[in-house]
Design goal:
Jelly Rolls, four-stranded antiparallel sheet, 115 residues
Length: 115
C-alpha cells in the first residue's frame, strides 16, 4: 500500500487551533510507516505555533505521538514530523498558533508498507 496525499489548506489565526484529518483509515493488520509534513505560509503578523501528531483507535479519544514541532517566523517552512510505525487506526495533525498572525497551513502525508 502506498498513499501520498495533500489535505486542504486551512487558515490559522492568532492563538487558534486547526486539525487535519487524513482521509484514509489504517487497517489493524497494516505494518508500515506514515510521515507528515506541515507547511506554514505567513500571510500577516509572525507565524508561530506548534504541530502535534496524534493517534486514535476509535477516532474519538486521541493521544499525542512524539513531541510537538514548532512552526515559526518565516514566509514558508517545511516541518517534517518524521516516520511513525502505525499502531493506531486513525491519525491527525493539530496545529496551535501563538501570538498575532494569519498563516496558511498545509499538510501532506505519506503511508507506505502493509501486509
Amino acid at each position: 500500500m502506498y498513499v501520498n496525499q495533500s489535505l486542504a489548506n486551512q487558515t490559522l489565526t492568532n492563538a487558534g487551533t486547526i486539525t487535519f484529518n487524513p482521509n484514509h483509515d489504517i487497517q489493524d493488520n497494516f505494518d508500515g510507516v506514515v510521515s507528515f509534513d506541515v507547511l506554514a505560509t505567513n500571510v500577516s503578523g509572525t507565524t508561530a505555533g506548534d504541530c502535534q501528531l496524534q493517534g486514535s483507535i476509535d477516532g474519538t479519544n486521541w493521544v499525542n505521538i512524539g513531541s510537538t514541532v514548532a512552526i515559526a517566523n518565516g514566509v514558508t517552512k517545511n516541518v517534517p514530523l518524521g516516520g511513525v510505525i502505525l499502531y493506531f487506526a486513525k491519525y491527525r495533525i493539530t496545529v496551535v498558533g501563538s501570538g498575532t498572525q494569519v498563516s496558511t497551513i498545509a499538510v501532506k502525508y505519506c503511508m507506505k508498507g502493509g501486509k
